[in-house]
């Protein structure tokens, strides 16, 4: 309190001094004469002076607050729709997407040409439309000829030419397709022993096959329907230089009806009508019906059915009507990686000259053809995938056949082959194995082996049917620049029965064949490639058929162009 008073007294003194100074300043405005001089004055400051204020009276009465009278209150609300003015601004919206992988450029056509020893000319062409989900169509042509062969130069020449057309149309739930082809194969019966100073007329030993095949089919596979079917009609026509003609009209129908997710009913039907004419006219009819029921029981697959077949063959007193029960049980302990199966069955297999002359073009005229009757087959096998790289297949079967055909040199002309049939049942033990290793698209290695142990009823040997055939193959793709292909195959020896000059018969064993084929392609660009093929690298003139040695080493080199 004292400090406050001190500050108040000091303020009063300052105010008084200021007031006196202002009065003096006003007096000086009159001039600088004698009358304007400051007068002496004395200021007294009392330090201990106290300022006393009277005591204020206090009012203890309460204020009265008047309560307002309640009245009606009408509240009005106003809603204003505030909108932004329309602006003519083009706002671009960009949707982020994942970039699609670009499809590699596809060349639908290529031509290939090369030349080699033995006067070999190698020509191939492939012409096809590009990617399309509406239709697929194309054509391929081939002409491979060797002006000389392993025996008597031009007398063992060979020519194979072919042209094929194909097409498919893809509709809603249905696919229609067809094929048409023509082939001309020319061979010579060079299975004789050349004699010095004796010339064999090439025209008298030549053989020419003309082949025509036409096929039409339709199916709805992949349509997601409970009933799936595939129907086809095929016509094959063959004639040769000796006025032989064969026509085969074959119809085939495969159906499958899914009863539910684990069971289905299938019916397959085949009809084949063969008309054969040479020195005699023969008609051969084949009909097969194969109904079966399939069911999946967890890891077990079960198939039960019957194969009913009829043949019109008369060779070797063929059985006309045949019924074969079919049962197959499969177990899949590791889904999609291991399958073990076993079963029994039988079948009537169609045999025609069209296929026999492709297997052995040196058949004699007027041979008689019969269907193979596989009366009983007991089999078992397995399929396995290991780490998606190794694929294994194995099968063991015990079979018995009637009218299994064999090739043998004709008694009247050893350069030609007759068809022989075992008079009785031919038992066969078959063991087949295959292993392949696939590493991406770069390396592929495989091994195949097919062993057949024949037990004939009346024939001395299973003529020209080797017991063991095996092959080892490999492909290697080096940076899509160099592609290597190789195949080493083995064919065991077999036997043929020959007629000696004195009219007696004897057995003759064919060669054991070990052959190595190599092929290399070098890509200069996506369009231009050179290639080199080497066949029979070991240069063995082996005999697959008695009296018919094969070519020695055969080299073909050339180029191919894609567009």
Automatic annotation (TrEMBL):
Q: Which InterPro entries does the UniProt record give? A: Beta-barrel_TonB_sf (IPR036942)
A single cellular component GO annotation: cell outer membrane
Under SUPFAM superfamilies, the record lists: Porins (SSF56935)
Q: Which domain of life is it from?
A: Bacteria
Give the signal peptide, or none.
1-27
Q: What is this protein called?
A: TonB dependent receptor
Query: Does this UniProt record's set of keywords contain GTP-binding?
Result: no
Q: Which UniProt keywords apply?
A: Cell outer membrane, Membrane, Signal
Location(s), subcellular: Cell outer membrane
> Native species of this protein?
Pontibacter virosus
């Amino acid at each position: 309190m004292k400090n406050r008073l001190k500050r108040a007294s000091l303020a009063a003194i300052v105010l008084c001094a200021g007031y006196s100074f202002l009065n003096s300043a006003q007096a000086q405005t009159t001039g600088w004469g004698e009358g304007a001089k400051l007068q002496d004055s004395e200021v007294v400051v009392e330090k201990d002076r106290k300022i006393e204020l009277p005591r204020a009276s206090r009012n203890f009465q309460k204020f009265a607050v008047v309560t307002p009278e309640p009245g009606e209150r009408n509240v009005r609300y106003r809603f204003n729709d505030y909108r932004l003015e329309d602006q003519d601004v083009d706002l671009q919206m960009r949707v982020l997407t994942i970039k699609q992988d670009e499809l590699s450029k596809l060349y639908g056509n290529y031509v290939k040409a090369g030349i080699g020893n033995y006067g070999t000319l190698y020509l191939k062409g492939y012409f096809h439309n590009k990617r399309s989900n509406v239709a697929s169509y194309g054509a391929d042509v081939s002409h491979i000829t060797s002006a000389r062969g392993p025996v008597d130069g031009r007398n063992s020449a060979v020519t194979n030419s072919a042209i094929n057309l194909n097409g498919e149309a893809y509709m809603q739930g249905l696919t229609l397709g067809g094929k048409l082809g023509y082939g001309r194969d020319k061979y010579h019966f060079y299975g004789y022993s050349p004699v010095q100073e004796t010339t064999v007329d090439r025209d008298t030993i030549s053989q020419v096959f003309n082949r025509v095949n036409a096929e039409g089919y339709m199916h709805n596979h992949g349509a997601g329907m409970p009933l799936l079917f595939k129907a086809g009609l095929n016509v094959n026509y063959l004639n040769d230089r000796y006025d032989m003609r064969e026509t085969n009209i074959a119809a085939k129908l495969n159906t499958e009806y899914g009863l539910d997710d684990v069971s289905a009913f299938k019916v397959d039907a085949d009809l084949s009508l063969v008309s054969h004419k040479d020195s005699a006219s023969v008609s051969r009819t084949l009909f097969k019906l194969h109904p079966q029921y399939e069911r999946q029981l967890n890891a077990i697959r079960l198939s039960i059915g019957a194969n009913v077949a009829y043949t019109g063959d008369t060779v070797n007193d063929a059985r006309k009507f045949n019924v074969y029960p079919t049962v197959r049980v499969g177990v899949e302990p590791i889904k999609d990686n291991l399958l073990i199966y076993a079963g029994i069955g039988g079948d009537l297999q169609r045999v025609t000259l069209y296929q026999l002359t492709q297997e052995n073009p040196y058949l004699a005229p007027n041979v008689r053809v019969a269907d193979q009757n596989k009366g009983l087959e007991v089999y078992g096998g397995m399929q396995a995938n290991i780490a998606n790289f190794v694929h294994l297949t194995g099968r063991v079967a015990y079979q018995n056949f009637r009218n299994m055909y064999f090739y043998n040199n004709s008694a009247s002309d050893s350069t030609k082959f007759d068809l022989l049939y075992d008079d009785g049942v031919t038992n066969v033990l078959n063991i087949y194995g295959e292993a392949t290793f696939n590493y991406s698209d770069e390396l592929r290695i495989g091994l195949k082996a097919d062993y057949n142990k024949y037990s004939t009823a009346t024939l001395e040997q299973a003529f020209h049917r080797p017991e063991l055939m095996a092959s080892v193959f490999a492909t290697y793709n080096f940076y899509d620049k160099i592609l290597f292909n190789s195949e080493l195959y083995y064919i065991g020896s077999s036997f043929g029965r020959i007629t000696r000059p004195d009219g007696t018969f004897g057995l003759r064993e064919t060669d054991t064949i070990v052959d190595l084929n190599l092929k290399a392609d070098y890509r200069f660009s996506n369009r231009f490639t050179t290639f080199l093929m080497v066949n029979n690298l070991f240069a063995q003139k082996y005999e697959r058929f008695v009296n018919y040695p094969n070519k020695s080493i055969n080299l073909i080199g050339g180029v191919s162009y894609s567009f």
